[in-house]
Request: fold
Amino acid sequence: MTNVNCEPFRDLLPCYALDALDPDETRAVEAHVRSCTDCRSTLKEYGAVSDGLMYAMPCQSPPPRVRARLIARLASGKPQAAGRRAMPLWQWMAGLAMIVLVVLNVSTLAQVNALRRQQAVLTEELYTHQKALSLVAYPQSRTFSVSGKATGTLVLNSELGSGVLFVWGLEPLDAAHTYQVWLIQPDGKRVSGGLFRPEPGEPFASAFISLSQPLSDFVGMGVTVEPGGGSPGPTTPRVIGTTF
Reply:
């Protein structure tokens, strides 16, 4: 979506696909996509992601041990006090049914929350991939080969103040660590370009890079393994890198 008229709607499209906009925003998006083929195509992609997630996780029945444990607990209860009438069987069964219903509702709620998180991640990934493709296709972008313990391609655009890194063969990391991109200045100073982690099962990893200065102010790029929140400077040897 390169049309300036599309800018106000770029962040609204994924929310529209999730039915998460208020009525005024919904009407505005619908009016826009009727006259914009680019946004209409993008919305169709978001809709496909949204619809597919509804079938991504099959419904699960509660474990049989839940019912058996409840019945055993009821059977081991204290006897009724003398002179007090025992509770009818139908009341016991109704109580048991209510407990099972609560368990099912909790399980369903957990599945719905998991689906929402997964949907949000997929929506963000789709948006990220679209931005990456736009940057690669931009005429003034420069491309560099990346090598080291993995291989990849770095695309930078000084005019847009951003870049994207594609890497194949990076080792996965534990939850306490992340990969950090460093832009190298002529005096050797490293400026952080962002953090990223390879997704399990994906053939490559990608990371967006924010250029706080013109590309001409840097002579190279490197990637190191850092603590989960990143570091003010590199703390481990470079994993991959390139020179400009």
